[in-house]
Design a protein that fits this description.
Elements: H1 3-17, H2 23-29, H3 35-51, E1 56-61, E2 64-69, H4 74-80, H5 91-103, E3 106-107, H6 108-115, H7 120-128, E4 132-137, E5 145-149, H8 151-156, H9 168-175, H10 179-193
Antiparallel strand pairs: 1-2, 3-5, 4-5
Helix pairs in contact: 1-3, 2-3, 5-7, 6-10, 9-10
């Protein structure tokens, strides 16, 4: 395969994948190319789509690469999809997802204690959307399920890993509380659950 053929194949894979694709998976799909050729071609694709004006670009996310729309075209996309609000997460879903992301693995009763409301329906929705998964059972009376975020969660929020989550201090500024107050609330909820 020529360099252009390798690049075209990798670009097509990234375009149709709909999720982050690792360099290993890209290389496996184009076995005629060496690891170095795959890395060089992906680097070219990333560079070309970030330097030239296109409707989308390539970002590194969840340990791989994926096509995403450019922020500059956001207003046009919003107008186009204005009729379709079903893809959005509710505030309850975002709150529950935040608790799971920062406290994982965490049980439904622990989440409900922190939020102060029953979260069974929200957890079901997040499971259906594959943003969270069941990762086992907690070794306590009743053996409740433990929940964790998924790779889909990282992709949905454009994160490469959980270390990219904002720090509690950033939330404190938004909420008008100190980071210590937020930590205390979370710790109190965890203690009362045990």
């Amino acid at each position: 395969m020529t360099r252009n053929e390798i690049r075209a194949a990798l670009e097509a894979i990234l375009f149709v994948a709909g999720e982050s694709v690792s360099l290993d998976d890209l290389g496996g799909a184009v076995p005629e190319a060496s690891k170095e050729e795959v890395e060089a071609a992906v680097g070219e694709i990333v560079r070309d789509y970030s330097e030239e004006l296109h409707g989308f670009t390539v970002e590194k996310s969840a340990g791989g690469y994926r096509f995403v729309t450019r922020p500059e075209v956001d207003s046009h996309l919003r107008k186009f999809f204005a009729r379709r609000g079903e893809g959005r997460l509710s505030m309850a879903a975002l709150e529950t997802l935040s608790i799971i992301a920062y406290r994982q693995p965490v049980t439904a009763p622990e989440i409900s204690e922190i939020r102060g409301v029953n979260t069974a329906g929200v957890i079901h929705t997040l499971l259906e959307r594959r943003l969270i998964r069941i990762s086992g059972r907690k070794n306590v009376v009743g053996s409740p399920f433990l929940y964790r975020t998924t790779r889909e969660f990282l992709t949905h929020f454009g994160l490469d890993s959980l270390q990219d989550l904002p720090k509690l201090e950033e939330f404190a500024e938004v909420l008008g509380e100190t980071a210590e107050e937020i930590r205390e609330e979370v710790e109190q909820a965890a203690v009362s659950q045990e």
